[in-house]
């Protein structure tokens, strides 16, 4: 029992929300102008960038061991994965040595908008589902198409475990961003559980706790079986003034995927690249035209998708500071942009229609990839037995400014919240935490196998699925490389102002890229525009 709130023998959460009926009146007073949903429409175009308040532990392993993924060991684990697999490191020791056991949670859409959004909004139960005729109705909204197979498959499981009638609606991002605020205004039609792109969750952080339409999760998490097991750094993004308003679905750490054969033919062993300078020198050695006359691209990435934010994180700052103030005028921002700009001759924007084929052929030679993008590549090559028999693709940790840097970053994210106005909020909290964090039947391992998405539950990483050699990367153990990157990923805070800052920068950066605007002019203009927009929507 924690604060009068307990988790019974069946894993159900009870007694938390006697206050929710009282909260409805306050929530109905919440307005669109407070959150700025209409005042900041461009915020909704960016879902992949976020701010950061960095804390990390020093690396303790040799770079080359984790860099290649051939036999990596977990950071801070004194033997890590090998010891776990040999039975010499138990779960409690693993969590403790990873700095995650007992740390507490008080601190504490996968694909980007550039990707195809998929089918039109859908609603329903899973095919063949047998919802409970007398169960508590629970309505779940989500966006990410690649989450649908899991949720569809688990409807019967949820209905039986919680005595509910579980239904879901899958909406595209624009529809959800219009529909949910409308339900708050009308006082009806809202979901019991809302899964959003992570960048959208923080748009509701405007004002004090009474204005935020979601139930704080601190007590529910602390009283749950999952306390201390979920990766603490992933909660910071959804926390305001010590209250957690979103449960993370994923980690999305960055790794580097590269076409080893293409690099070796150019005389470069990319596995030895450690710093951004090393990568620049490697790119400079390449002939940028292929034998068939097609252009060759050492790097595929959007201008602000992975390379730029990763550099920001490695320098210890983010788009906004812990108070939501823009960080564009910080000298470190200019430094990281300048570093990324020197790679312009080697970069091509991501081609979502052809990126798998371009990667397989070696036309694209490297890219920074989060776990969900890795999953797309695996799915895109799953039926190509000839390619997988001798795949040239390899996986490694990403470069950093320093050899002993964090060598990580992140792109994308999804989180679940329970609206205060839900009439079934207590039950909804039960269902949400179980759906996201429970692995008693290997549910999170299945998520990783099917989608490539690394769940934020550390104990689940002991599962065999995370330690299997994978043909797509030539027999390397991709799961272990992602785990190490995840453990080095710092926590970072965001506020409703963050997407405003990102949008302001993305309006200027293409002009810098094409040489139409100087970097200093772009930074000054973006900073001013961001601050003006924030001031107008306070």
Structure description:
The protein has 538 residues and is of the alpha+beta class. It has two domains: 6-52 and 104-251 and 411-462, 3-Layer(aba) Sandwich (D-Maltodextrin-Binding Protein, domain 2), CATH 3.40.190; 255-410 and 494-536, D-Maltodextrin-Binding Protein, domain 2, CATH 3.40.190.10. It has helices spanning 20-28, 32-35, 63-67, 80-86, 91-97, 148-153, 155-162, 173-186, 198-201, 218-223, 260-265, 276-284, 307-314, 331-341, 355-361, 371-381, 385-389, 425-437, 443-451, 478-487, 498-513, 519-536, and strands spanning 6-7, 13-14, 122-124, 136-142, 164-170, 193-197, 239-240, 243-244, 247-248, 255-259, 299-300, 347-348, 366-369, 393-396, 414-417. The strands form five sheets. The chain has a six-stranded mixed beta sheet with strand order 3-5-4-6-15-9. α13 crosses α14, α16 (371-381) crosses α19 (443-451) and α21 (498-513) runs antiparallel to α22 (519-536). The relative contact order is 0.19.
The percent of residues in helical segments reads 25-40%
Q: Which structural class matches the secondary elements?
A: alpha+beta
Roughly how many Å is the radius of gyration?
23 Å
β-strand percent reads 5-15%
CATH class of the largest domain: Alpha Beta
Write down the domain tally: 2
Q: Stretches where pLDDT falls below 50 for ≥5 residues?
A: 1-109, 111-121, 124-132
Tally of helical segments: 22
What distance separates the N and C termini?
A: 39 Å
The CATH architecture classification of the largest domain is: 3-Layer(aba) Sandwich
- Number of E-type strands: 15
Shape field = globular
């Amino acid at each position: 029992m924690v604060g009068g709130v307990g988790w019974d023998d069946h894993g159900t959460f009870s007694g938390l929300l006697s206050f929710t009926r009282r909260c409805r009146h306050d929530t109905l007073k919440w307005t669109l102008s407070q959150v700025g949903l209409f005042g900041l429409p461009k915020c909704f175009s960016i879902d992949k960038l976020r701010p950061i308040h960095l804390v990390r532990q020093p690396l303790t392993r040799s770079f080359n061991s984790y860099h290649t993924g051939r036999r990596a060991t977990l950071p801070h684990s004194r033997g890590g994965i090998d010891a776990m697999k040999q039975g010499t490191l138990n779960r409690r020791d693993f969590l403790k040595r990873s700095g995650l056991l007992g740390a507490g949670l008080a601190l504490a859409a996968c694909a980007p908008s550039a990707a195809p959004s998929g089918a039109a909004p859908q609603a329903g139960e899973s095919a063949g589902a047998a919802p409970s005729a007398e169960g508590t109705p629970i309505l779940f909204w989500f966006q990410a198409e690649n989450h649908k197979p899991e949720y569809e498959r688990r409807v019967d499981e949820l209905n039986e475990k919680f005595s509910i009638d579980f239904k879901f609606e899958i909406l595209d991002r624009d529809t959800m961003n219009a529909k949910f605020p409308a339900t708050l205004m009308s006082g009806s039609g809202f979901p019991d559980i809302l899964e959003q792109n992570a960048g959208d969750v923080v748009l509701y952080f405007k004002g004090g706790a009474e204005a935020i339409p979601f139930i704080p999760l601190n007590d529910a998490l602390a009283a749950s079986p999952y306390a201390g097991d979920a990766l603490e750094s992933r909660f910071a993004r959804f926390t305001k003034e010590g209250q957690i308003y979103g449960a993370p679905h994923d980690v999305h750490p960055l790794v580097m995927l590269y076409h080893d054969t293409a690099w070796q033919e150019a005389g470069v062993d990319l596995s030895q690249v450690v710093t951004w300078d090393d990568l620049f020198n490697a790119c400079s050695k390449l002939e940028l035209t292929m034998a068939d006359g097609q252009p060759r691209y050492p790097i595929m990435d959007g201008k602000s998708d992975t390379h730029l934010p990763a550099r920001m994180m490695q320098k210890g700052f983010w788009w906004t500071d812990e108070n939501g103030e823009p960080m564009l005028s910080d000298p470190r921002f200019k430094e990281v942009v300048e570093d990324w700009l020197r790679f312009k001759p080697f970069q091509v924007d991501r081609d979502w229609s052809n990126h798998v084929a371009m990667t397989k052929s070696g036309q694209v030679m490297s890219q920074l990839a989060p776990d969900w993008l890795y999953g797309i590549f695996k799915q895109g090559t799953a039926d190509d037995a000839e390619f997988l028999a001798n795949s040239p693709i390899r996986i490694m940790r990403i470069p950093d400014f320093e050899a002993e840097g964090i060598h990580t970053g992140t792109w994308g994210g999804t989180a679940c919240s329970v609206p205060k106005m839900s009439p079934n909020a207590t039950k909804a909290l039960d269902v949400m935490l179980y759906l996201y964090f429970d692995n008693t039947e290997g549910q999170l391992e299945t998520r990783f196998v099917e989608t490539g998405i690394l769940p934020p539950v550390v104990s689940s990483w002991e599962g065999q699925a995370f330690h299997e050699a994978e043909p797509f990367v030539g027999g390397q153990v991709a799961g272990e490389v992602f785990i190490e990157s995840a453990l080095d990923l710092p926590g970072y805070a965001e506020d409703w102002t963050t997407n405003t800052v990102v949008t302001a920068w993305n309006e200027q950066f293409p002009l810098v890229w094409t040489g139409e605007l100087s970097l200093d002019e772009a930074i000054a203009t973006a900073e001013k525009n961001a601050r003006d927009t924030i001031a107008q929507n306070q």
